[in-house]
Design brief:
It is built from 14 helices and 16 strands. It is an alpha/beta fold. Strands 2, 3, 4, 5, 10, 14, 15 and 16 form an 8-stranded mixed β-sheet that branches. Strands 1, 6, 7, 8 and 9 form a 5-stranded antiparallel β-sheet that branches. A 3-stranded antiparallel β-sheet has the order 12-11-13.
Length: 365
């Protein structure tokens, strides 16, 4: 039993079963033993690989997207350029390198990175040490200074905790994490049905609710609507109603038991893009998309960028470029290597008066 599991068992023994949302928050974000506080999750030697680790093209196109949005905003100075959960810093390094084509944009940037993990902060500082823009780090988005902002969230919302509700004979009961007869972590259900949850469903059916993501989106969208700017969300998820659960634990690129060794594996759930869009509109912002990642990257010119890179590449490099292009924006069948292009979606949230940003010209939600 690791220290975090011991702590969670003690909490349950003292206070009773905890919600899945609380369990996930502890497993991922406990300041000493949480996954993001103690692990390097990214890369071949980590537990998963994100789009910026696959190819520079992804971050470069987002950099050009940010320039275009800034110009549509009438080029405010300063502009807060914000990334939520910057990982190893690869995405922002590519964004800033691509932005060198617009020195006026670089000169306007006030770079702010939201990162709780000191381990990841150190990696981000190394990745950005040669950039032309100084960065500031914050633990939460609430610490950001005021002003117009472009906010990028790549594979961030999937890391926020979710709640599960299971249909019983008398209504929906919240799924809880408790202890079995031998004192081990296990799933169970609240004794009483959840008041106010009256959705139809069959016995045993599960509703997954991303309340934490919706709350964060409401705050960010209200800020954008009131102070100007845009939020770009790239993540895997769904944009149609879903009955079922998507919670998964990943350790060393393989699925794991989410209740085993908390803090040792990444816990994620698919993003409810409909819920995010609903929260953003309710906060007064305008919503664009979601659009499948492959389609969005194609609209931004990833195929043309790949062709330009190929012209200056050797045989092995060309093969790597083609492989990355397939993963990020391919159109092949399921399991062809192009799953990310289809499963990942892109959503933009903008101030009400801003025109549709690049890649969303015909995708207003």
């Amino acid at each position: 039993m690791n220290p975090l599991e011991s702590l969670i068992r003690e909490m349950i023994a003292e206070n009773g079963p905890m919600s899945l949302e609380t369990y996930m928050s502890l497993a991922l974000a406990h300041p000493m033993h949480g996954y993001y506080a103690s692990k390097m999750p990214l890369g071949e030697n980590g537990d998963f690989i994100t789009a910026p680790e696959i190819s520079q093209m992804f971050g470069e196109l987002i950099g050009l997207w940010c320039i275009a949005v800034w110009r549509a905003m009438d080029e405010p100075r300063p502009l807060l350029l914000v990334e939520l959960g910057p990982g190893r810093g690869s995405l922002m390094a590519d964004v800033l390198r691509a932005a060198c084509v617009a020195p006026d944009f670089l000169g306007a940037i006030d770079l702010n990175l939201i990162e709780k993990s000191e381990l990841l902060q150190r990696n981000q500082r190394v990745a950005l040490k040669n950039s032309q823009v100084a960065a500031r780090w914050h633990k939460t988005a609430e610490e950001l200074p005021s002003g117009p902002a472009i906010i990028v969230a790549n594979e961030f919302f999937d890391c926020l905790p979710v709640r599960h509700f299971v249909r019983g004979p008398d209504g929906w009961h919240e799924r809880l994490v408790g202890l079995d007869g031998e004192g081990r972590l296990c799933f169970g259900l609240a004794a009483d049905a959840e008041p106010g949850l009256a959705a139809p469903g069959e016995p045993g059916q599960v509703i997954e609710a991303g309340h934490a993501g919706a709350r964060l989106m409401a705050r960010l969208a209200a800020r954008i609507a009131g102070q100007g700017g845009a939020l770009l969300v790239v993540d895997y998820g769904y944009d149609t109603p879903l009955h079922g659960e998507t919670l998964q634990a990943v350790k060393r690129h393989r699925f794991a038991d989410p209740l085993r060794d908390p803090g040792e594996a990444d816990l994620t759930a698919h993003v409810d893009f409909r819920g995010l869009a609903r929260a953003a509109r309710a906060a007064g912002a305008r919503v664009h998309g979601p659009v499948p990642q492959g389609e969005w990257l194609a609209r931004l010119g990833i195929h043309e960028r790949a062709a330009a890179l190929r012209r200056h590449a050797g045989g092995r490099q060309r093969a790597a470029i083609d492989s990355a292009l397939l993963r990020l924006a391919g159109t092949g069948p399921v399991d062809s290597g192009a799953d990310m292009a289809r499963l990942f979606k892109v959503l933009a949230v903008t101030a009400p008066g801003l025109a549709a940003p690049p890649g969303f010209e015909t995708a207003l939600a």
